[in-house]
Design goal:
alpha+beta; 44% helix
């Protein structure tokens, strides 16, 4: 049975549990669980990270922890009872863990920046460190101090990690997290700011220390022991700053005691900040211990001397810039002359090079130097190892900048300066050595009290170094004598002088001594300074044994009596400098006189007067003694010395205000509390103080009085303590008298404070001095008086201040400072006193804030006041708090809001410090406002609102508070990581808004409606909901849970409030339509379901009200659409929102009368959302360009067609343009920019600045666009399109007579023509792609597209690219249309196969003499339709002859727009399916092979072929295949009686097949003749074989002689030139097709080899081509009447490998192994479009008469005819088939014989130069062909010279098989070359209507009607609406002009006008005479503002 748990409430999972049992809850190790019930070893509960999932799990998996339960019951909250630091560590580490894993993924997957990888590792180390520290805390074995250190360490690490991971700053107090609800907002702000500041700016340390570690001395000439002395030297004052640090080195130059680190390491302590400057140095002196001369030979003398070796100097400033702990190698210098040794360091510093030199080139001192900062105790903690290992302390000479009480020091420093000695009867100067001893009062040498420096222990004596032969030596050697204070009296120092002989004995001979006493008889020590000592002669050591003998002698020449001239006159002297650093001894006699006042009462007056002159450090040494002396004198002679003692006391008190002595204040405090005994002093102190105060107003000099008032705090301390001692001693006598005295004193104070003076008056300054010290008195008064009494004193004192003061008066700032101190004092914390003081404080504060003065101090005061007010549960304090809140609200709320508004609107100051201060006060005022609002209850709000008497006042207040709240919500209000503070702010705001919304409803509705207030309210609500800090979805689960538990989802609360207020508005809602649509839409896009459910219905309400007002809701729709785009592009909204928006609003409008229009609006908005969401997803980083472009096109078209939003349309045009440029799709970029270009006119209308365009005229912008587009067409090798735009620009320049630009434009046009002819272009492949399944983006889902491939991109590469773009897609392995299951599948399916383009521009392609460079463009540009063929067998398959049943299924795809265009792919709009019969297939194949042969023969004749191999191979392939039975198979299949009987309708087609077979034989015969002419000698045998085989072939076909229509040479040219042939005025009667127009769809097929040889695709391709030319195909494979590779490869490739074969068979790609590859792939349906057989629709056979008509020669591009449509109708239909993408201009149906032979040029020719000639020319020239400005990548091809006027035989693709086999086996892929018109007839010859194909899916007329009605896309270069001039014919073809000379060229606009007149039948805007169907503009013309 399950029992609810009582104490087992909280646990941690010890091991993962899968939860496989029934109702089991899966657990992961480390999860925390809350336990609800227990049953037989199982718990039931939930994991904290997912409280909704409850289940059971075993007890053994859970480690129980003690927990505290809140709200026991169903909604109980369980908090573990553990140290808050532990709890924080646990939750933080969990959060970090998830982020740490993400860091790992980012680091490994994306190989991102080094810093992120570093952070991953650093975070890992910190997490491990925190876990270790957590263990230490949990074990609980730490001492309190250690625990404190560990917690500090933990919190520092937690803060570091949070900062690195951009997590929130945690407010803490004493290491524990603070609950923001339990402290006031001002306190919270202070905590946050403190932590923020700590993080930002560490306080610079004022104390510094230098760590020195002596490593070694490197020198080549060592061999003696060394002594190294370090000290810090002030180069500015030329004096040492520290004592010396002494290290002994052995003969190798390393420290003698390496194991004792304290002997080689030291810390120079207590350096002030002023010591860290450039002219402070570390000076190193090095002495050697050895012989007198460094180079002397060893002798028997064993005596060693200290001799100078070298000196090194380094500046302390160098250490500030160096790394933290650098090893330095210091250069060592030696003296040039030994006598200069004493100042060698000064010479080095001053760089006096002549006096020193390098001691040796390789001599260097290796030391480690490091500057440490902070207090010495702090260093001990931070560098614990340093101190435990051992380091000597080297002290500063004198006291540090701050003297600490309790510091014990008694060091006497003696510097041996110099000596003057006589020769002593010797011929040379002496070598003098001094020995120093310290002797006590008894004359005994004091042991260990002579120290050379720190680092080495002190010795009994000290030997100076020796200077060689110098009677005036200068040593400047400092020694330290640390003599204890008690041994100082009577002690003296003796200096013995010895001559050091350099002779063999090397003895040191005494010749004199000096001595000095350390203390004088009166107790004063030896004064600091230089002393000249007398040298007493003495040659025997024994004479010095008894010190009493010489101590009576004089020691200093300064102290000699005047009669002792003999001694004074001696030349010998010895100078020393002494310096005492003692905390106990003094050298000051005045100080001693004061302390001994009882012994010399007559000196009291003098001593008191001199006290002010004594150095402060001397006074603080004897502070307690001095104070005792003063109060002793006061007690004994108060009348006589009272004033002077008072002054001395004031002097001492003020001395302690100095920063150097401030640490002695506690010493004085201790003295007052424990040692002060002046029980009667208070009377005198009060009396003197009052006397001074009373004199203030009248006194001329205020300086002394100000000094007295500065000391007020301590004077009161003495007064109060004295009174307490008196009361204690007397049982409280004279209490009234004391109170009376104090009251009188305060009356005097109030009087002097109430004086109004000038600003500069000394009294004003005195008032300021008093106010600064006054708050410090409160605490003392409270020791005797009650809280209320003291509060009364303070209130009256502060109240007496003059009210009217000038803003610039310094007293005002001091007043405020005094108030601040008062508020922060202990007095103010008491509620009783607070009530008394609050009015005074508020009055002063209000005055300052209203005038915006001293805001920093105001903020500080307000913060302190509000920190004390908390909502308290106790009944006693609540009324008091409520009253205080009332007072503050009345006085300050409005002023506070105004202040916040002013300081946030004020420009921020420039300086960093000022800016920080500025931000601080803004934050503090905001915290104060929040604290105040949080304290306000319902009652306070009611009272506040009642204070506004007029509606205008209330309105102003509401507007003001809403504005302030908007400011508080700003992101920059608080630092980014202050989420805690932001949540508190929002909680206060929403609470306040809920209170104020009632006031809004009551006061500003119905007839009192005020739009501004309501608008401000809604605006605030919207930005409140949209704040980043409230978007809980972006938080981690734990943080989200914490926020929801504490505050709930504040967005939903505010949303409900908005809805409620909206419902209250009634008819006033109309005021907010459409203004609030955008803001409310933004709110609904927040991903919170409840909020969306609340807010979305508001849109229905808006639609309803708008419908009532206007009868429609166009405004609502327009605003929704405008805002949706910008909001969704910012990342807002999702698929769920789209569904919710749709469903909620559809449900709401079900019963509305305007339901239909509502549904339409909702559908439009929903569709827009779909596209915007797709667009946003595609634009994400890492998405492929293709997807981005497709999505942008979809959205752009939607804005244009469905929404008619011109500005958005233009914006997306430019976004698409940028995408194309980035992807290097320059052609597509040009087409895209054309969309905008075509919206503009050539007018001077001014356009505003828009996107990146400046303000300019419409003409200028259009010109700029034209030039940009031309540049991009040029880069995309789409030069034909560029030419059209160049001409249009040239027309404009000409019309303005801008000949300079006109010239440039003509040159640019010419350069584009050159590029067409000179540069190669690759021909792109086209691929059909189907996107099936619901997982695709909306713009692709279940649609099929045709895509233009990249250069060199074949099917496999394209397929792989698509699969990379859609990595989750599945490639379909068939080409059939998918069924509904695929369409509806929750997956992605891709169906890809290659398709062939069907060119529109047949006239250019079929015209002979047009270079391939030109034709290649028209083959692959401006393509609307594409074809795909699939072979199949119908009925039973004849194994002997497969051609009998081989059908072709032909699919034609029509696109919505032509390729190329604004995208590389366009959607398929229409599919047509046609089945081609076996007979038609055979005709098509032979036609193509014939055409190929003609082309090769023509190329050979015109010498375009470098190599005859292609022709050889082609002839060999056809003849070989025919001989081996190729054509015979066709005869067997179609010429037998059975077939003719069964298919009577195919009679004409059989005849056509026969004609083609004869024609092929004839072409072969002619080809062999040409071949014989050009064949090289080594290939003659092959030629002979071909001729022989050809005769066999003829006989096999039964041909004895060719029919008449074939006999004439099919490839004969008049002069061998295809172009001259074209120009013949008489048709070529001997050509079988000479005068016949065949309306075929099969275009010209180029051989693969020729295709490769004429381009430079790759060297590999060239090699492969040469391989192909050198081999012939097997007859078995090529010519047998069975499905050849080309026959069986009529279908397209459609999916990826392995099931997709190579997109190109080897022949087409140049592979030599064609036959092997295709041997077993006869049914293969996976070949690319380039390998597919010809896909033409067959022509109707025409009778010879019709064929011979010359009128139809110009009609080169005729599609299949519709038998039901008359020819004139068809022609008319064609005229109207002009689209936005292409102007399909169709030739006139009536031509003269001469004109009929003329061919159209490939691009529009130039305009004529005169009107008259234009008319003449127009009558004879054909119309310009359609221009297709699309990019092409095809290499140039040579036109067929064999087809002078044969139409329909032009193809744009290579054959499938790489060999030149016969037409039967070469059913190569060929694009349909379908023209837009039909067969045209002349007036004399009606059109012949041949039979159409029986299986056609749609008739030609349908196609024409569809093409006519097609919505034209708006980006056609073809349809330039500017007028075109008539085109002149070439000179050879033009009719001679009239005899009249031509007129001067008219102006361009006149010329255009005349052109229009010349062609009366045409559209007035067109000069070409072709009827023009006007095209509607894609968008309304509203570009004036753009």
């Amino acid at each position: 049975m399950w029992i609810p748990t009582e104490h087992e409430k909280y646990g941690v999972v010890l091991a993962s549990f899968r939860g496989t049992v029934q109702h089991g809850l899966p657990l992961e190790i480390g999860d925390t669980v809350q336990l609800l019930e227990k049953c037989e070893g199982w718990y039931r509960g939930f994991v904290h990270k997912n409280p909704n999932a409850k289940g059971i799990f075993p007890c053994t998996y859970i480690h129980l922890k003690n927990a505290h339960i809140k709200n026991k019951g169903q909604f109980e909250t369980v908090i573990p009872t553990e140290d808050s630091v532990i709890t924080e560590m646990t939750t933080t580490l969990r959060d970090w863990g998830a982020m740490w894993k993400r860091l790992y993924v980012v680091k490994t997957v994306q190989h991102t920046h080094k810093n992120e990888g570093d952070l991953f590792h650093r975070l890992w180390h910190v997490m491990n460190e925190i876990l270790d520290l957590r263990r230490q805390v949990l074990v609980g074995h730490l001492t309190n101090d250690r625990m404190k250190d560990v917690k500090q360490h933990i919190t520092a690490r937690l803060d570091w990690g949070n900062e690195q991971l951009s997590l929130d700053l945690v407010p803490r107090r004493e290491f524990s997290m603070v609950d923001p609800d339990e402290i006031s907002v001002t306190e919270l702000f202070k905590l946050m700011e403190h932590r923020h500041r700590k993080k930002e700016t560490p306080v610079p340390a004022s104390t510094h220390h230098l760590f020195v570690h002596m490593k070694s001395l490197m020198s080549s000439n060592l061999g003696e022991e060394l002594e190294v002395f370090f000290h810090i030297y002030d180069g500015r004052e030329n004096r040492p700053l520290s004592e010396r640090f002494f290290v002994r080195l052995n003969k190798n130059g390393v420290p003698k005691s390496p194991e004792k680190t304290e002997r080689q390491c030291t810390l120079f302590v207590d350096l002030g900040s002023s010591d860290l400057r450039k002219d402070v140095y570390i000076v190193v002196h090095i002495m050697r211990i050895g012989r007198m001369g460094a180079g002397e030979k060893k002798n028997v003398c064993s005596i060693q001397y200290r001799r100078p070796f070298g000196c090194a100097v380094v500046s302390i400033a160098d250490l500030l810039t160096a790394d933290s702990k650098d090893d330095h190698l210091l250069k060592v210098y030696a003296c040039t002359t030994e006598s200069e040794w004493y100042q060698i360091h000064e010479n080095i510093i001053r760089k006096v090079n002549s006096r020193y030199n390098l001691s040796g080139s390789n001599t260097g001192l290796a030391v480690s130097l490091q500057l440490l900062h902070g207090d010495i105790e702090q260093l001990r903690r931070e560098y614990m190892v340093l101190f435990t290992r051992g380091v000597s302390i080297t002290k500063k000479l004198g006291f540090s900048d701050i003297i600490m009480p309790g510091e014990m020091r008694n060091d006497l420093y003696v510097t041996l300066e110099k000596g003057e000695f006589e020769k002593g009867g010797k011929s040379v100067a002496r070598n003098v050595e001094i020995t120093v001893y310290v002797l006590d009062i008894e004359g005994q040498v004091m042991k260990s009290y002579v120290a050379a420096g720190s680092g080495e222990p002190g010795g009994d004596e000290y030997h100076s170094f020796v200077l060689y032969h110098n009677n005036s030596p200068r040593w400047a050697e400092q020694i330290k004598l640390p003599i204890p204070v008690d041994m100082f009296r009577g002690a003296h120092v003796r200096f013995e002088f010895r001559h050091c002989s350099t002779k063999d004995k090397g003895e040191k001979k005494l010749f004199g001594y000096s001595f000095v006493h350390l203390m004088q008889e009166d107790g004063r020590t030896l004064p600091d300074g230089t002393h000249e000592l007398i040298i007493h002669k003495c040659e025997e050591n024994a004479n010095l044994q008894d010190s009493s003998r010489y101590l009576k002698l004089p020691f200093s020449k300064a102290n000699l009596p005047g009669n002792n001239q003999a001694v004074k006159g001696t030349k010998e002297s010895f100078w020393i400098t002494s310096f005492l650093c003692s905390t106990k001894l003094t050298q000051n006699g005045d100080m001693l006189d004061l302390l001994k006042w009882r012994a010399h009462p007559e000196k009291i007056n003098d001593s008191l007067s001199k006290l002010k002159e004594i150095d402060g450090s001397e006074i603080v040494k004897f502070l307690q003694d001095t104070l005792d002396t003063l109060f002793g004198i006061l007690d004994e002679s108060s009348q006589r010395y009272g004033l002077k003692v008072f002054d001395c006391l004031v002097h001492i008190i003020n001395l302690l205000q100095d920063s150097k002595f401030q640490h002695f204040k506690p010493v004085m405090d201790t003295y007052i509390e424990s040692h002060f005994a002046g029980a009667l002093s208070y009377r005198d102190l009060i009396k003197v103080l009052k006397w001074y105060v009373d004199r203030i107003v009248d006194a001329e000099h205020q300086d002394h009085i100000q000094q007295v008032l500065k000391a007020t705090e301590y004077i009161f301390k003495y007064i109060i303590q004295s009174r307490r001692l008196f009361a204690l001693a007397t049982g409280g006598q004279s209490e009234e008298e004391f109170r009376c005295c104090i009251h009188e004193l305060f009356m005097s104070i109030r009087f002097f404070l109430s004086q109004e003076n000038k600003i500069t008056s000394p009294v004003t300054q005195t008032q300021a001095v008093f106010l600064r010290t006054f708050p410090a008195v409160y605490g003392e008064l409270l020791k005797i008086f009650t809280v209320k009494e003291v509060a009364g004193f303070v209130r009256e004192t502060l109240g007496s201040l003059p009210a009217t003061a000038h803003a610039e008066c310094p007293l005002e700032a001091v007043k405020l400072h005094c108030i601040a101190k008062t508020v922060e004092s202990q007095l103010y914390t008491n509620p009783e006193s607070r009530c008394i003081l609050l009015p005074v404080v508020l009055r002063l504060l209000q005055a300052h804030m209203q005038e915006q003065r001293d805001l920093v101090m105001c903020a500080r005061i307000l913060t302190s006041m509000l920190s004390l007010i908390r909502k308290d549960d106790s009944v006693t304090t609540e009324p008091v708090v409520s009253e205080e809140v009332d007072l503050i609200v009345d006085s300050l709320l409005v002023v506070l809001m105004r202040t916040i508004l002013e300081i946030t609107n004020r420009p921020q100051p420039a300086g960093t410090n000022m800016r920080l201060q500025f931000q601080d006060i803004t934050g503090e005022f905001v915290a104060c406002l929040l604290a105040l609002l949080r304290q306000m209850s319902d009652k306070h709000y009611q009272q506040l609102l009642q204070t506004f008497t007029s509606k205008d006042d209330l309105r102003d207040f509401l507007l003001q508070i809403f504005t302030v709240f908007r400011i508080l919500i700003r992101p920059e209000m608080f630092p980014k990581d202050w989420t805690v503070m932001r949540l508190v702010t929002n909680n206060v705001i929403i609470t306040t808004v809920l209170y104020l919304s009632d006031a809004l409803r009551k006061n500003f509705l119905n007839e009192k409606f005020d739009y501004k207030v309501w608008d401000s309210y809604f605006y605030l609500s919207v930005i409140f909901i949209n704040q980043p800090c409230l978007q809980l979805e972006s938080f981690s689960p734990s943080k989200r849970k914490r926020v929801l538990e504490k505050y709930g989802d504040m967005r939903v609360m505010m949303g409900c409030e908005i809805f409620s207020m909206w419902q209250n508005l009634g008819e006033h809602k109309l005021n907010f339509i459409p203004a609030m649509i955008g803001p409310f839409l933004e709110v609904t896009l927040v991903p919170q379901p409840d909020l969306r459910n609340v807010m979305i219905p508001i849109f229905h309400d808006m639609m309803d009200w708008e419908q009532r007002r206007s009868g429609n809701f166009k405004q609502v729709e327009a605003k929704l659409i405008d805002k949706l785009d910008s909001l969704m592009s910012e990342g807002k909204g999702d698929e769920t929102y789209r569904e919710l928006f749709n469903s909620i609003l559809l449900k709401k409008i079900e019963r509305e009368t305007w339901r239909e229009s509502g549904i339409s609006l909702i559908a439009t908005v929903t569709r827009l959302m779909e596209r915007l969401l797709d667009y946003r997803d595609c634009m994400k980083l890492g998405e492929v360009d293709g997807k981005k472009i497709g999505c942008t096109v979809s959205l752009l078209n939607f804005y244009k067609t469905e929404l008619n939003k011109e500005e958005m349309y233009i914006r997306y045009i430019h976004k698409l343009y940028e995408l194309h440029l980035k992807a290097q799709n320059y052609t597509e970029a040009s087409y895209t920019l054309l969309l905008y270009d075509e919206l503009l006119e050539w007018s001077d209308r001014p356009l505003r600045e828009f996107l990146n365009y400046p303000m300019q005229s419409e003409w200028q912008r259009k010109e700029y666009l034209h030039l940009t587009i031309v540049q991009n067409f040029d880069r995309g090798k789409c030069w034909e399109n560029g030419i059209i735009l160049c001409r249009e620009l040239a027309d404009q320049y000409e019309s303005y007579y801008d000949y300079r630009n006109l010239s440039k434009m003509r040159m640019m046009e010419a350069s584009l023509y050159d590029k067409i002819m000179d540069q190669q272009r690759l021909e792109p492949e086209f691929f059909r792609v189907g996107f099936y399944g619901k997982k695709f983006p909306f713009f692709l889902r279940n649609k099929e597209f045709v895509c233009r491939g990249h250069d060199y991109e074949r099917l496999e590469a394209f397929q792989q690219r698509m699969l990379n773009e859609f990595p989750h897609a599945i490639a379909m392995q068939h080409v059939n249309q998918p069924d509904q299951t695929i369409y509806q599948a929750e997956a992605q399916y891709l169906q890809i196969y290659a398709v062939s383009p069907i060119p529109e521009s047949q006239d250019v392609l079929q015209r002979d003499g047009v270079p391939d460079n030109i034709k290649s463009f028209y083959k692959v540009n401006h393509i609307w339709r594409f074809r795909y063929d699939r072979p199949f067998h119908k009925g039973t398959k004849d194994k002997e002859n497969e051609f009998k049943s081989l059908w072709v299924e032909r699919t034609t795809l029509t696109l919505v727009q032509s390729l190329p265009g604004i995208s590389r792919w366009f959607e398929v709009e229409k599919r047509e399916l046609v089945e081609v019969s076996p007979l038609e297939n055979a005709i098509e194949v032979i036609e193509n092979k014939n055409l190929q042969l003609r082309t090769l023969i023509a190329q050979c004749q015109s010498r375009q072929m470098q190599n005859i191999n292609p022709l050889t191979m082609c002839l060999n392939g056809v003849i070989d295949a025919a001989v081996n039975g190729g054509l015979a198979r066709y005869q067997e299949a179609f010429f037998v009686k059975d077939y003719i009987v069964n298919h009577p309708e195919d009679g004409e087609k059989i005849g056509r097949l026969r004609e083609l077979m004869f024609e092929q034989a004839h072409i072969l015969e002619y080809g062999l003749a040409v071949h014989e002419k050009f064949v090289p000698q080594d290939m003659r045998p092959l030629h002979k074989k071909l001729v022989d085989q050809f005769h066999v072939m003829k006989s096999s076909l039964g041909i004895q002689e060719f029919p008449a229509y074939v006999r004439a040479s099919p490839v004969h040219f008049t002069n061998g030139s295809p172009r001259s042939s074209c120009r013949n005025s008489v048709p070529n009667i001997i050509s079988p097709d000479g005068a016949r127009v065949v309306a075929r769809r099969s275009p010209l097929t180029y051989p693969a080899v020729n295709r490769y040889s004429s381009s430079s695709l790759s060297s590999q391709a060239s090699n492969e081509v040469s391989n192909i030319t050198g081999q012939s195909e097997s007859s078995d494979e090529v010519f047998n009447m069975q499905p050849s590779p080309s026959t069986s490869s009529l279908s397209s490739n459609h999916s990826a490998s392995p099931n997709v074969t190579s997109s190109a068979p080897s022949s087409a790609r140049g592979s030599p192994q064609l036959q092997d590859k295709h041997k077993h792939s006869r049914e293969n349906s996976c070949l690319s479009s380039r390998e597919r057989p010809v896909s033409a629709i067959y022509p109707n056979p025409l009778d010879p008469a019709q064929r011979a008509t010359p009128h139809q020669i110009g009609d080169t591009t005729l599609p299949r005819s519709d038998p039901n449509l008359s020819a004139p109708d068809k022609v008319r239909t064609t005229f109207s088939s002009r689209s936005l993408d292409s102007v399909k201009e169709v030739n006139n149906t009536q031509f003269s014989d001469t004109v009929g032979k003329l061919l159209c040029p490939p691009v529009p020719p130039r305009p004529p130069y005169s009107g008259s000639s234009a008319k003449t020319m127009r009558s004879q020239s054909p119309l310009p062909t359609s221009r297709s400005p699309q990019k092409s990548s095809l290499p140039p091809f040579t036109p067929s010279p064999t087809e002078c006027q044969s139409a329909g035989l032009v193809s744009n693709s290579p054959v499938l098989s790489g060999s030149y086999s016969s037409g039967i086996s070469s059913m190569s892929r060929c694009s349909v070359s379908e023209a837009s018109g039909t067969e045209a007839t002349t007036g004399d010859h009606p059109a012949h209507q041949g039979p159409t194909m029986p299986n056609s899916v749609s008739s030609g007329s349908d196609e024409l009607i569809r093409r006519e009605n097609k919505t034209p896309p708006p980006y056609s270069v073809y349809e330039r609406s500017n007028p075109r001039r008539p085109v002149p014919l070439p000179h050879s073809l033009s009719i001679p002009p009239s005899v009249d000379p031509p007129a001067l060229p008219p102006k361009p606009h006149q010329l255009r006008t005349s052109s229009m007149k010349l062609v009366p039948t045409s559209d007035p805007r067109r000069a070409d005479g072709v009827p023009h169907v006007p095209r509607p503009r894609p968008l309304p013309r509203k570009v004036s503002q753009l």
